[in-house]
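User: My instructor asked us to take a sequence, write out its structure as tokens, and then describe one feature of it. I'm not sure where to start. Here is the sequence I was given:
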Amino acid sequence: MAGKNKLSISVQYADARLAELLPRPLLRKTVQAALFFPADLTVRFVDSEEGRILNRDYREKDYATNVLTFAYTEDDDAAVTQADIILCVDVLLKEAEEQNKTVVFHAQHLLVHGVLHAQGYDHEDEEEANEMEALEIDILQSLGLPNPYET
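Assistant: Let's start with the prediction itself. The structure tokens for your sequence are:
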């Protein structure tokens, strides 16, 4: 399980609608729970326009998605994980409502998901997806949160 690793975190609220619900200390605690290595991360909250532009320009998908992770240290020997994690507020709010989850819980889940991506985890095939999902469940449970995949 993730431990207490050194963390430098910058939080940017380009879309400030969730700034009060998701303050920096909560974000830091959530990120810290998902870290297996020291990290230097930026967490940025954006609107659907910025989210769509980033997804289009970097992933060639012309729509806003819930979370994007831009990992800059893909070398296994890197001493510090460096990444930008982008959360799209519009998508996050819509999904939380559709899934009957609180906004805070859904944001924490997406943040854990993004932090795992920053550390090299992926879900391109079934085995990777199962491993990543199990980690997400364990990390969220360590924070006292339920399994996000149970309906």
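For the description part of your assignment, you could build on this observation: The domain at 7-142 is CATH 3.40.390.30 (Collagenase (Catalytic Domain)). Try explaining in your own words what that tells you about the chain.
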